[in-house]
Write a structure and sequence with these properties.
Length: 352
């Protein structure tokens, strides 16, 4: 771990208090109106700022912090904060770094923060909807999301059944309805247009629908090939598992035997399962950069016990930092379930 990241994490409590204190002192009374609860949330937010910064430092790539800052810009807009809130937040962060970091450790983290100030000038205030378009699947995705937001899980399920009866493939439903809907749910939460409870319900409903359809899916379309095996897991305490579930299902459709571990699995457990299952491929997924350290731990452990296995990774951090998978020691990165199959076919020489 870079010395800069270690120092920030070792002094995180001091730094986040300093950030909130400075932010309150220089905001002309804006934050005080949120009371004690608001102060607690401000401390939590400040911790996130520093943690995302340290993840960028570990990866030696400012993109992670840049995109976090852009996300924060949209979040603040959704909360109706003044337009300069994000700029003020980052400037306070820079001031705290200057005050608290030793001079020899300041240059790189400070450059990431000042770079983020430039980056957000070009980033949109509001992320464009993931469900725009006028083809039939766009319409289905919008209707599916609307049913979920209204709590109508049965209607959402009936809509998917009808789409399958009309001839749309499982892969189309997964990628163009389920995946895009999840992205749109995240966008709506970011803009403060839906609650955390709605976000959780929508995700749980889609997981339930996928599980209910699972037996029918593979009776109808699964390729008859069982010579390859995949183990797939979400790294560490990562709870965002829907993407990994989709990847496992796509590999099942291609005829692979899959061993899906799911969310919140310790590194040691993943290693034990790999040793027992002896897969050709291990897939690791992470959505929040905080859990990248788990992948940094898992991959060397796997390599030490199985030098022949191929390891692919996926998830948001790898999307915004294109070379991160290489730095992690993985063999490839899949941007979605379909792309993961293409990468694996290239790695092990199978025929799609």
């Amino acid at each position: 771990m870079p010395d800069e990241a270690s120092y920030i994490l070792d002094h995180l409590d001091t730094l986040k208090v300093a950030h909130v204190t400075r932010q309150y002192e220089t905001s002309k009374g804006f934050w005080e109106k949120y009371g004690k609860e608001g102060y607690g949330k401000a401390l939590q937010d400040a911790e996130y700022h520093f943690r995302f910064l340290t993840e960028s430092l570990k990866a030696e790539d400012p993109s992670i912090f840049y995109h976090y800052s852009s996300w924060l810009k949209s979040l603040f807009a959704g909360l109706s904060f003044p337009p300069d809130t994000i700029h003020h937040t980052l400037k306070v962060l820079a001031e705290v770094l200057k005050e608290h970091l030793p001079a020899k450790l300041l240059e790189v983290p400070l450059s990431y923060v000042t770079g983020a100030l430039d980056f957000i000038q070009q980033s949109p205030l509001e992320v464009q909807s993931f469900l725009i378009g006028d083809n039939p699947l766009d319409t289905i995705a919008r209707s599916y999301l609307q049913y979920l937001l209204e709590g109508e899980k049965n209607k959402a399920f009936a809509l998917i059944e009808k789409a399958l009866e009309q001839g749309y493939t499982w892969k189309e439903i997964y990628l163009l309805v389920f995946q895009r809907t999840q992205q749109e749910i995240g966008r709506l939460w970011q803009l403060n247009l839906i609650s955390v409870a709605q976000e959780h319900f929508c995700t749980a409903a889609t997981q339930h629908i996928m599980a209910y359809l699972y037996p029918r899916l593979f009776r109808a379309t699964r390729k008859n090939r069982k010579d390859k095996r995949l183990v797939i897991a979400c790294a560490g305490k990562e709870l965002h598992e829907l993407g990994a579930r989709m990847v496992a299902d796509f590999f099942e459709l291609e005829g692979w035997d899959t061993y899906y571990i799911g969310a919140n699995t310790p590194a040691g457990t993943i290693v034990q399962i790999v040793q027992k299952q002896k897969p050709d491929i291990l897939g690791l997924s992470v959505t929040l950069p905080f859990y990248l350290d788990e992948i940094r731990t898992i991959i060397p452990m796997i390599r030490a016990s199985n030098s022949n296995i191929k390891i692919i990774v996926g998830g948001y951090p790898f999307k915004i930092s294109p070379n991160l998978w290489i730095a992690m020691g993985a063999d490839g990165y899949g941007k979605d379930a379909e792309h993961a199959i293409e990468i694996v076919n290239t790695l092990i020489g199978t025929v799609p």
